[in-house]
C-alpha cells in the first residue's frame, strides 16, 4: 500500500513534532533526564492527564464539551483513596454509579437539547461538593495493588511511556476502529444522517458519555496510584488541560474530528512543557501562561498547513 | 399483481396551518421508475420523508412490501429495502467513505468489515460511474462536491444484506456534470430493468422523461396526474404542474414608467445568467424552484450595499427575513423592540434610545400594519406567526430604506395577513420604494411587476407585464424540452 500524506497525517504530525522538539530541548537543558528514571519522572504525571484527555475527546467527538472533568477526576480520586483500600466493593459501586450518572447526563443533554457546557459546568460543582464530603481534608491512601501498578518497573522502557502507549492504542481501537467509534464520530460529523440511517443518536451519545466517565474514573485512580493520597481539589487543572490536549492532538471542537493517538501525544506535550519551563527556572506561576503560548504556536502551525491545502 | 414495494395510502401531513400533504395515494411496484415533479410546496419532499420513514403521516398509512403494516419509522423503511439519496449532501464529512458505508448499512458487521466494505464500494462506484477516479479509502471531507454526490449515490445502491428495493433520488444530478448525470441515469435504467424501483425527483424534465416509466405530478399537497411516461411531453408536464383551475388574473398591476430611475442594475454574466434591473417603485419577483440561487442573490445585493465595519447609511436597503426563528425575530424582546431595532439610530438622542420616539413609531406601525396586540410591550412570541411577520415588515418599512429585499417572508402565514401585507407592499411601492421579492408561492409572484426566474443559480428568464403567468414561470423553472 502506498503512503498518502493526507490532512489527517499532517494533523498528527504537528503534535508529534512539537513533542519531539520539546523533548530535545529538555535533554539539551538537562542531559540527565535522558535515562530510564529521568523519562519516568518526566512523564509520570502524564498518565492520568492522558486518560482525562481521552475522556474529554469522547465528549468533543459528539460536538459537546465537558467542563466537569477536573472535579470528576478529583471525585474519583477521593473515592479511590478513601474506600478502595478498606472496602473495595463499595468503592467500585460508587464509581460505577458515577459512570451511570455520566451516561444519564449525556441522555439529558441530548433529550432536552441543552448546551453541554452549562450542564457539565453545573455538574462540576456537584462533583466538587461530593469530593469534599467524602474527603474533607487531604488524605486517604492508595490501595497497594494500584500503588504497585503505577510504580511498576517495566523492562527497558519506563512505565509511564508504556502506559501512554497502551492508553493511546486502546482508545484508538475504540474510537477509530470499532463500530461504536464510527457511530460516535458520525454523530459529531452529521447527526441527522446518522439518525436517517436508522441509528439511535440518543444511545450513541449515552455510550460516548459513559465511556468518557469510565476514562475519567481511570484517570482518578491512576492519579491516586501516583500520589498515594487524594484531595478534593487534586485535579482541577485537568478540565482545561484535557481540552488543550485534545485540540493540541489534532482534534477540533465541532465536526467529530478527533484523534486518540494525537490526544495522548497532546497530553504528553503539555506535561513536558511544564517540565521544560521548570528546567528553564520559570516560576510555576507563569507555567499556565506558557502552556497557553505553546498551544497557540501549535494551533497557528496547523492553521498555516490547512490554509495551504485549501 | 404482486405486492408493491411501498404503498402510501391516504397520507396527510400538516405543519401548523399548512397542509403539506392531503390524502395522497402512491404505490411503487418492482421494476418501476417513478418520476416525481411539482413546483415549490407541492409536497415532494414531504412524500419522500413519509416514504423513507422520517415523517409519520398524521392520517393514512405507509406499508413496505411484504412487511407487517404496523411497522413505521426509519428502521422499518430500511428493512423494507428503501434507500434515499437526499437533496442536500448527507454524508459525515469527518468519516472515511468506508465508515460512512458502515453507518448506512447495518449489515456490515463482524471482523474485517472495512475490507469488505471497501471492495463493495469500489465495485459499485465503478459500476455506476465507469472510469471514475474517486479514492475509496479517502475521508469524505477531502472529496469534491461532485465526488461526494457520486459516493452517496453508489452507497445507496450498495448490496449488503439484500439489494435495495426502492432507491429515492432527490435531485441527484444537481451537483453532477452532464456526463456523470448520464452515467447515473443509465445505471438507474439498468437497475429498474433488473427489477428494482426508483423514485426520481428532478427539475430537469429531460431526465424525468428519459428515465421514468411513470410520472407523478404533484400540486398543493396532492397528486394531480399519474400516468405512464408515454402520455407526457415536456409541454404537457409543465401544464399539469400548473393550476388546474383558471389562469390567475392579474389585478392591480401598474405599469411602472420606463422613465423612473434605475436603482439596481446587475449586468448579465455567464455565471449569473441574465442581468437584473430594478426601477424606483417597482416590485420585482424572484421565482423558480427553492434553493436555486434566489436567497444568494438577495444576500449579495444586501452585502454590496451595506458596510461590514460602520453602520451603513440607513436610507439604502432593508432586509425582511424568511425564516423568522432563524434570522428574523429576537425571541426574548418585546414587539416594540423587535420593530424599532432596525432603525435605532433615528430614534436615539445622545446615544440612548428615546422612549417617547420609540413608542410613537411603534404606535404608528401597529396601526399601519394592523398588528393584533393589546400592547406593543408584550413579548414578540405572544403574537401569531403572521403577526410576527408583520412586525418584521414594519421593521424594514419603518426605516427610510429605498430598497426592501424579501426572502420568501410569507412562509406559513395565514391568508388574511398575506392580504394585509400585499396591500402595504403596493402602497409603499406607489410611494417610491423598490421591492425585490423572492417567493415560492405562485400567487405572490403573479403580484409582481416584473419577474426573474432562477434555475441552477442563474437567472434564466425575465417576465414582465402580461408574461407573468404561472405557465411561463413553470416552463422556465424546469429545464428540458419545455424550455
TrEMBL record, chain A:
Q: How does it sit in the membrane?
A: Multi-pass membrane protein
Superkingdom field = Bacteria
UniProt keyword terms in alphabetical order: Cell inner membrane, Cell membrane, Membrane, Transmembrane, Transmembrane helix, Transport
Annotated InterPro entries:
ABC_transp_permease
Q: Does the keyword Coiled coil apply?
A: no
Q: Where does it reside?
A: Cell membrane
In terms of one coarse class, where is the protein primarily found? membrane
Q: Which Pfam families match?
A: BPD_transp_2
Residue stretches spanning the membrane? 12-29, 41-60, 67-84, 90-109, 116-136, 156-175, 206-228, 234-254, 261-280, 286-305
This one is known as ABC transporter permease
Q: Mind giving the lineage of the organism this protein is from?
A: Bacteria, Pseudomonadati, Pseudomonadota, Alphaproteobacteria, Hyphomicrobiales
Automatic annotation (TrEMBL), chain B:
Instruction: Note the coiled coil stretches, chain numbering.
Output: none
Q: Which residues form the ABC transporter domain?
A: 6-245, 254-481
GO terms for MF = ATP binding
Read off the InterPro entries from this record: AAA+_ATPase, ABC_carbohydrate_import_ATPase, ABC_transporter-like_ATP-bd, ABC_transporter-like_CS, P-loop_NTPase
Transport is among the record's keywords: yes
Is Metal-binding set as a keyword in this record? no
Which keywords annotate this record? ATP-binding, Membrane, Nucleotide-binding, Repeat, Sugar transport, Transport
Matches recorded under PANTHER family: CARBOHYDRATE TRANSPORT ATP-BINDING PROTEIN MG119-RELATED, GALACTOFURANOSE TRANSPORTER ATP-BINDING PROTEIN YTFR
Tell me its family. Belongs to the ABC transporter superfamily.
Name of the protein described by the UniProt record: Sugar ABC transporter ATP-binding protein
Amino acid at each position: 500500500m502506498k503512503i498518502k500524506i493526507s490532512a489527517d497525517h499532517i494533523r498528527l504530525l504537528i503534535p508529534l513534532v512539537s513533542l519531539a522538539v520539546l523533548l530535545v530541548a529538555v535533554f539539551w537543558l538537562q542531559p540527565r533526564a535522558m535515562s530510564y528514571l529521568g523519562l519516568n519522572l518526566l512523564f509520570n504525571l502524564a498518565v492520568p492527564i492522558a486518560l482525562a484527555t481521552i475522556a474529554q475527546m469522547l465528549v468533543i467527538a459528539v460536538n459537546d464539551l465537558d467542563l466537569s472533568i477536573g472535579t470528576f477526576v478529583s471525585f474519583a480520586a477521593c473515592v479511590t483513596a478513601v474506600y478502595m483500600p478498606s472496602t473495595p466493593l463499595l468503592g467500585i459501586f460508587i464509581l460505577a454509579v458515577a459512570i451511570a450518572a455520566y451516561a444519564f447526563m449525556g441522555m439529558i443533554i441530548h433529550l432536552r437539547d441543552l448546551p453541554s457546557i452549562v450542564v457539565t459546568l453545573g455538574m462540576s460543582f456537584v462533583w466538587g461538593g461530593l469530593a469534599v464530603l467524602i474527603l474533607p481534608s487531604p488524605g486517604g491512601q492508595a490501595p497497594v495493588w494500584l500503588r504497585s501498578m503505577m510504580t511498576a518497573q517495566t523492562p527497558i522502557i519506563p512505565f509511564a511511556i508504556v502506559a501512554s502507549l497502551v492508553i493511546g492504542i486502546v482508545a484508538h481501537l475504540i474510537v477509530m476502529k470499532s463500530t461504536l467509534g464510527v457511530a460516535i464520530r458520525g454523530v459529531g460529523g452529521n447527526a441527522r444522517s446518522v439518525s436517517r440511517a436508522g441509528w439511535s443518536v440518543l444511545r450513541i451519545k449515552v455510550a460516548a458519555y459513559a465511556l468518557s466517565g469510565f476514562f475519567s474514573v481511570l484517570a482518578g485512580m491512576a492519579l491516586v496510584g501516583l500520589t498515594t493520597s487524594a484531595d478534593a481539589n487534586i485535579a482541577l487543572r485537568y478540565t482545561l488541560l484535557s481540552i488543550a490536549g485534545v485540540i493540541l492532538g489534532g482534534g477540533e471542537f465541532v465536526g467529530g474530528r478527533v484523534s486518540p493517538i494525537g490526544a495522548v501525544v497532546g497530553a504528553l506535550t503539555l506535561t513536558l512543557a511544564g517540565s521544560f519551563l521548570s528546567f528553564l527556572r520559570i516560576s510555576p506561576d507563569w507555567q499556565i501562561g506558557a502552556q497557553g503560548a505553546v498551544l497557540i504556536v501549535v494551533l497557528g502551525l496547523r492553521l498555516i498547513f490547512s490554509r495551504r491545502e485549501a | 399483481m404482486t405486492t408493491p414495494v411501498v404503498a402510501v395510502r391516504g397520507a396527510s401531513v400538516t405543519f401548523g396551518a399548512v397542509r403539506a400533504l392531503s390524502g395522497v395515494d402512491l404505490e411503487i411496484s418492482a421494476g418501476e421508475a417513478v418520476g416525481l415533479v411539482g413546483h415549490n410546496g407541492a409536497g415532494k419532499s414531504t412524500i419522500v420523508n413519509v416514504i423513507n420513514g422520517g415523517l409519520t403521516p398524521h392520517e393514512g398509512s405507509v406499508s413496505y412490501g411484504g412487511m407487517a403494516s404496523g411497522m413505521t419509522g426509519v428502521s422499518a423503511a430500511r428493512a423494507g429495502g428503501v434507500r434515499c439519496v437526499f437533496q442536500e449532501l448527507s454524508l459525515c464529512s469527518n468519516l472515511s467513505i468506508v465508515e460512512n458505508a458502515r453507518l448506512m448499512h447495518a449489515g456490515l458487521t463482524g471482523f474485517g468489515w472495512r475490507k469488505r466494505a471497501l471492495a463493495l464500494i469500489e465495485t459499485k462506484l465503478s459500476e455506476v460511474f465507469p472510469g471514475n477516479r474517486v479514492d475509496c479509502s479517502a475521508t469524505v471531507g477531502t472529496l469534491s462536491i461532485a465526488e461526494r454526490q457520486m459516493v452517496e449515490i453508489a452507497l445507496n445502491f450498495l448490496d449488503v444484506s439484500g439489494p435495495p428495493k426502492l432507491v429515492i433520488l432527490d435531485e441527484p444530478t444537481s451537483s453532477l456534470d452532464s456526463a456523470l448525470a448520464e452515467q447515473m441515469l443509465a445505471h438507474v435504467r439498468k437497475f429498474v430493468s433488473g427489477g428494482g424501483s426508483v423514485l426520481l425527483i428532478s427539475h430537469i424534465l429531460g431526465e424525468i422523461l428519459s428515465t421514468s416509466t411513470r410520472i407523478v405530478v404533484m400540486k398543493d399537497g396532492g397528486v394531480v396526474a399519474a400516468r405512464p411516461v408515454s402520455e407526457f411531453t415536456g409541454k404537457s408536464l409543465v401544464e399539469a404542474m400548473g393550476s388546474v383551475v383558471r389562469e390567475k388574473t392579474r389585478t392591480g398591476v401598474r405599469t411602472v414608467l420606463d422613465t423612473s430611475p434605475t436603482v439596481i442594475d446587475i449586468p448579465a454574466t455567464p455565471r449569473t445568467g441574465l442581468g437584473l434591473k430594478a426601477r424606483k417603485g417597482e416590485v420585482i419577483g424572484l421565482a423558480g424552484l427553492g434553493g436555486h440561487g434566489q436567497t444568494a442573490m438577495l444576500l449579495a445585493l444586501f452585502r454590496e450595499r451595506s458596510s461590514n465595519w460602520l453602520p451603513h447609511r440607513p436610507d439604502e436597503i432593508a432586509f425582511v427575513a424568511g425564516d423568522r426563528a432563524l434570522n428574523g425575530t429576537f425571541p426574548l424582546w418585546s414587539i416594540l423592540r423587535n420593530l424599532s431595532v432596525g432603525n435605532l439610530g433615528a430614534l436615539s438622542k445622545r446615544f440612548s434610545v428615546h422612549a417617547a420616539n420609540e413608542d410613537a413609531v411603534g404606535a404608528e406601525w401597529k396601526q399601519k400594519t394592523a398588528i393584533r396586540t393589546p400592547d406593543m410591550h408584550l413579548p414578540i412570541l405572544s403574537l401569531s406567526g403572521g403577526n410576527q411577520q408583520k412586525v418584521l415588515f414594519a421593521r424594514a418599512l419603518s426605516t427610510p430604506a429605498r430598497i426592501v429585499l424579501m426572502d420568501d417572508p410569507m412562509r406559513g402565514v395565514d391568508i388574511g395577513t398575506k392580504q394585509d401585507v400585499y396591500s402595504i407592499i403596493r402602497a409603499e411601492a406607489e410611494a417610491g420604494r423598490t421591492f425585490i421579492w423572492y417567493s415560492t408561492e405562485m400567487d405572490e409572484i403573479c403580484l409582481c411587476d416584473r419577474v426573474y426566474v432562477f434555475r441552477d443559480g442563474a437567472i434564466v428568464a425575465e417576465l414582465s407585464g402580461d408574461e407573468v403567468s404561472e405557465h411561463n414561470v413553470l416552463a422556465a423553472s424546469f429545464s428540458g424540452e419545455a424550455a
